[in-house]
Amino acid sequence: MLGRDLAAAVGAANVLTGSDMARYARDWMGRYQGEPVAVVRPGSTAEVAACVKIAAQHGVPVVPISGNTGLVGGTMTRGGLLLALDRMNRIREVKRDARLVNAEAGVILTRLHDAAEAQGLYFPLWFGARGSAMLGGVLSTNAGGSNVLRYGSTRGLCLGLEVVLGDGRVLNLMSELHKDNSGYDLKDLFIGAEGTLGIITAAVMKLVPAPKAHATATVAARSLPDALALLNRMQEATGNRVEAFEFMPRTYSERLREARPDLGLPFDHIPDVTILIEAATTVPSEAIPDATGDIPLVTTLETILAEMMEAGLITDAILARSEQQRRAMWARREAAAEIGVGLYPEVDTDVCLPLDKVEAFLTRAIQRVEALDPGARTITVAHLGDGNLHFTAYPTRDDKALKDRVLEAVEDVVADLGGSFSAEHGVGLSKLPSMQRRKDLVALEVMRSLKQALDPQNILNPGKVIPG
Questions:
Q1: Could you tell me the end-to-end alpha-carbon distance of the chain, in angstroms, rounded to an integer?
Q2: Which domains can be identified in the chain, with CATH numbers?
Q3: How many other CB atoms are found less than 10 A from the CB of residue 293?
Q4: Nearest to residue 245, comparing CAs of 154, 133, 360, 381?
Q5: CA angle 71, 75, 81 (to 5 degrees)
Q6: What DSSP character marks residue 211?
Q7: Which of the listed residues 60, 157, 327, 343 has the most CB atoms within 10 Å of its CB?
Q8: Alpha-carbon distance 427 to 45, whole Å?
Q9: Assessment of whether the complete model's pTM goes beyond 0.90
Q10: What's 81's DSSP letter?
Q11: 3 state DSSP class of 39
């Protein structure tokens, strides 16, 4: 019996059934309600391996779940075993001189931030769900966030992995090396695979020096090309020290005013283009206040903003003069997921475009949506520095055929402009039709071959990522 075997492996208290499974079975957005056969909570890599072996013996699919902050149904299952990694929450080691951390998959990101900060370092993976998202989940989806511009996505921060395969073997790829050309780079197969090739149980992640100062501003730009001019000028002036460059168009600001009036808006008017820009430095000469009390990095940003305002490229700007003001600016941006809650029906996309094609995408995508459904609403927010847009359409009626047409129209524009229909949230269930329509056929064949080779029984998160 599955439950008895699992209880023997991890203890009866860590095998949940019935109503005890509720918080794991339903995704946080309420889009997916699963029916797992059980939830098992292993406390070590050995216990994960034992659970996978038991599930394989019983022919039961295994679906890993971390912080349950996903948006694409990646942890949805009916009849599968949910393998929750929240007990695997140990930070095994922080190496200050090597600037790395060895941690288990169930560690919440804010704990990594705190552990790094205690050593004068910084873990540069930063987004709104950092207080609940776990390391295994962000690796499994190759999460992005606001700092991708400077530090890259999760894949770029990972040096090594520990993975349990579909037959229960443990694959030890826990390298601390920055360079290793000894054959295939296997760890990259599992990052972004959403648990379909193996279950990530631990990782070695890069840390960076903690910033000594930030320069943060909210800016009203005349247009998106003018906003990109600001990004490029600040990068040149600071040696690529811009960490975040976030775009909030008029539609976002209007919805923010509706849903979170307590956060306020930065300007008396709502600009068509609002930008949150932040640079950071570890260089003392740029971070220590000068004789006038000004921080040189902030002065650099202020000077560039003044020059662009004089040229008419920027119409307004507010510099953060305190940490409180900086946090208020970020609170408006990090309310993105919250302000979308309650608006239905919706067609949610997570696309990536070349930087110089973002404006064309927005113009064409909005036109296509309005042509299909006059009166439909759209709300966008974007990591403009890396071309990642969260473009959401809200049709006037809950009609599946209409929603499908809207989604395909958006995908058409993305494809025409050389973009990707999936940028940082993963594929899961919700983007399987897009994978079928848009992914290169040879690439899909290779993905299926890898799945068959690593998981011949097809028990690891089946039905996700790869279209049937």
A1: 30
A2: 2-84 (3.30.43.10), 91-209 (3.30.465.10), 213-336 (3.30.70.2190), 343-425 (3.30.70.2740)
A3: 6
A4: 381
A5: 170
A6: P
A7: 157
A8: 26
A9: yes
A10: E
A11: strand
